[in-house]
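Why do we care about 3D structure at all? Because function follows from shape, and shape follows, mostly, from sequence. That is the central idea of this module. The next example makes it concrete: a single protein chain, its amino acid sequence, and then its structure expressed as tokens.
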Amino acid sequence: MSQPSEPSDVRLHVVTGKGGTGKTTVAAALALAIASGGKKVLLCEVEGRQGIASLFDVAPLPYAERRVAVGPDGGEVFALAIDAEAALLEYLDMFYRLGRAGKALDRFGVIDFATTIAPGMRDVLLTGKVFEATRRTQAGRPTYDAVVLDAPPTGRIGRFLNVNTEVAGIAKVGPIRSQADSIMKMLKSPRTRIHLVTTLEEMPVQETLDGLGDLEGIGLPIGVIVVNLVRESELPPSDFAAALAGELDGTSIEAALKEAGVEADSSIVAGLLGLAQEHSERVVLEREQRARIEATGVRAVDLPYVHEGIDLGSLYELADSLCASRAF
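And the structure:
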């Protein structure tokens, strides 16, 4: 499968992944990584969880673009929590010049009604706002060098991005149809890449493979698979096979503990041997899942497990790892 020949030419990065894989964290780190080259980046979320605000330790984001971080070389990360109802008001004003009338509709609950009975319309509004931000210019130059979208999970990413199909039963012609066509043209262009986040566990990897199939079926351009929360094996290769078989030498472990000044009875040694076996079994399972990822032919980028938890400092460290990969 082809990868972008010039990652810097990509304007829209869509990040998806199974819940619990660190999708929002990866999206935030990616925005910082792109901004590290002195660029201006917009990071968007569409699920109403305020995950970006939490990561950057700022107040909940309004429906407005706010700067949340500064990268090296003068780069900046702005963030936006996209709300479907607010986007519909903006849409009505843009295409129909409703102004106050649109706000009156909101008071009567018409907007909530419209986005509830027509979920496809909701996705057009959410992706439409991203589309607008990606294309927006100031003084003839793009307002943002890149836009990163923290998208819905892989389980529904195909439906979310395939806005043409979602609006087929709503509008055959008119501004809504035209908007959907323009969005799909952008999503299928070389300026867009969709990245999938996973961990080396069976369910996240399977959902990643299913998501790849959905995206390829629609004809959307795949970027990379980000393998998150990667932990290196703590056993030297010479001991791995013995640990897996439960045949590590307990005597040598006890001697090593005593040498380090740790009193170790038989129960402690047995516990350590059990942990070593469990660890080696996990490594084997992770290698099996990595082989499934490699079989897709999509480039994989590893991000390390952060033992101290995610804060702004660790986000910058993850951004450095993404920069080093040269995949974005």
